[in-house]
């Protein structure tokens, strides 16, 4: 078998994944191809700024290089398994990642993946990382901006008891490219007002190098070809929240590699003011993030006012109790324009009493520049219920009266299980929830 692998490897060039590579990595890649390094910067700009996923369409590259890239590189976008459109206009994407069956379609010159998988040890390692998984991202258009909620892991190991994602357990970490794709693909769909999808007989949706013909309108339920919803064109501002499936600080390197590209003016060009990473309170990760030159804003998922309560809701608190977490928050180096956000999911009868609000005020008192987002719990098959609007307002009033800025944030997309804590790969087309999004 070894002889066969060696012989095959010698015959076939290794396929290099471009999506997720930094500018420097792309420059180095081009040098290894015998090309000038600046070609790497051109590929970087085309991929992330222009969202050109078909390397054949990067027309400022010489034709010979484009042809070589078509043979020796690929851009892997996730397969769009399903889109769930909420009454409020949000779209929950169910993405399939690393489906080996479909990746094979995009191997050079139609070579099948099973054969290809035998050719290179590096490719086999990559396959293990990219074992099939599904994740979700949520695209939320609104006046003047769009917000995209992105997953950083498939599933999650943190086990917050009020969160449906926890039920999945950790399936695997995502690569930088898989994180970026959750932003690039919805942005491109919205920009074009069409959905990137192939129908019968073409290349599967979004996997590999997507030729221009792969972007087209799809058939809607009532027949005919229509633009994707009403999302025609992008709003001027894009917000990114790393609040989908997973704990971003437990997949630190790939998350930060994706973040650097998103925040690079020559990459996606997202402003750091418009990007938020939310953590359950992984203290070593917070300390590490503090050292990063380029970083998003930080949000802490607090959800409790004392250790006993937080231990019961979020077992991670036993490892990083509130005193340790608050110390890390106090030492976190905020930029002049920045504040720390604390998210507090309101669970009826559990953490929503007036005394809880007073304890939250005391917890946050030593910190500068904080704000609290109160998030009404979003329904799911879990033993909790929502706090009443009156209770939430009373909680908010206690915080505000004692000098803590607090806001009630209703999640979008509840009716399609796209809201905070609801991302659990639910295929609700058969059994839609009878949940109405509050205004
Ligand atoms: Fe994981 Fe976040 Fe859900 Fe907690 S709330 S289980 S960290 S996805």
- Classify the oligomer: single chain
Tally the structural domains. 2
**Uncertain stretches:** 1-10, 100-122, 198-231, 428-439
CA radius of gyration is 23 Å
Name of the CATH architecture of the largest domain: Alpha-Beta Barrel
CATH topology of the largest domain: TIM Barrel
Order of neighbouring strands in the sheet with most strands: 3-4-5-6-11-12-13-14-15-16
| Distance separating the two termini | 63 Å
Strand elements, count:
16
Tell me the structural class: alpha/beta
CATH class of the largest domain: Alpha Beta
For the largest beta-sheet, the strand count, sense and barrel status come to:
10 strands, mixed
Please tally the helical runs, counting DSSP H or I stretches of 4 or more residues: 15
Mean of residue pLDDT? Answer: 82
Bound molecules: iron/sulfur cluster
Share in β-strands: 15-25%
Helix content: 25-40%
Task: Label the overall shape.
Answer: elongated
CATH level-4 homologous superfamily of the largest domain = Aldolase class I
């Amino acid at each position: 078998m070894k002889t066969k692998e060696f012989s095959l490897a010698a015959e076939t060039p290794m396929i290099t994944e471009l999506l997720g590579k930094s500018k420097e990595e792309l420059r180095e890649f081009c040098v290894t191809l015998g090309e000038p390094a600046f070609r790497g910067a051109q590929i970087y700009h085309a991929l992330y700024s222009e969202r050109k996923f078909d390397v054949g369409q990067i027309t400022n590259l010489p034709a010979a290089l484009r042809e070589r890239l078509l043979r020796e590189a690929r851009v892997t976008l996730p397969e769009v398994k399903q889109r769930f459109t909420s009454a409020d206009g949000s779209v929950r994407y169910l993405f399939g990642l690393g489906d080996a069956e479909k990746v094979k379609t995009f191997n050079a010159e139609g070579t099948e993946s099973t054969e290809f998988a035998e050719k290179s040890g590096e490719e086999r390692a990559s396959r293990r990382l990219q074992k099939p998984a599904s994740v979700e991202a949520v695209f939320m258009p609104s006046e003047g901006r769009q917000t995209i909620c992105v997953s950083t892991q498939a599933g999650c190991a943190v086990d917050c008891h009020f969160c449906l994602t926890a039920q999945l357990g950790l399936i695997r970490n995502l690569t930088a490219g898989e994180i970026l794709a959750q932003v690039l693909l919805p942005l491109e769909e919205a920009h074009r007002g069409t959905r990137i999808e192939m129908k019968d007989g073409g290349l599967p949706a979004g996997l590999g190098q997507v030729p221009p013909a792969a972007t087209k309108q799809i058939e809607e339920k009532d027949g005919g070809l229509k633009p994707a919803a009403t999302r025609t064109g992008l709003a001027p501002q894009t917000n990114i929240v790393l609040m989908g499936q997973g704990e971003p600080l437990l997949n630190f390197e790939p998350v930060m590699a994706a973040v650097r590209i998103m925040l690079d003016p020559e990459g996606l060009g997202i402003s750091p003011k418009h990007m938020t990473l939310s953590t359950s309170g992984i203290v070593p990760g917070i300390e590490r993030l503090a050292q990063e030159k380029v970083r998003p804003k930080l949000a802490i998922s607090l959800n409790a006012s004392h250790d006993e309560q937080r231990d019961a809701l979020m077992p991670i608190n036993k490892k990083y109790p509130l005193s340790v977490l608050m110390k890390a928050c106090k030492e976190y180096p905020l930029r002049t324009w920045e504040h720390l956000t604390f998210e507090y999911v309101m669970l009826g009868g559990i953490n929503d009493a007036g005394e809880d609000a007073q304890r939250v005020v005391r917890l946050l008192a030593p910190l500068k520049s904080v704000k609290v987002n109160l998030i009404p719990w979003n329904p799911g098959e879990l033993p909790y219920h929502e706090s009443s609007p009156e209770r939430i307002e009373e909680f908010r009033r206690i915080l505000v009266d004692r000098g803590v800025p607090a806001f009630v944030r209703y999640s979008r997309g509840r009716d399609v299980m796209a809201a905070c804590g609801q991302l659990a790969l639910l295929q609700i087309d058969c059994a839609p929830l009878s949940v109405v999004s509050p205004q």
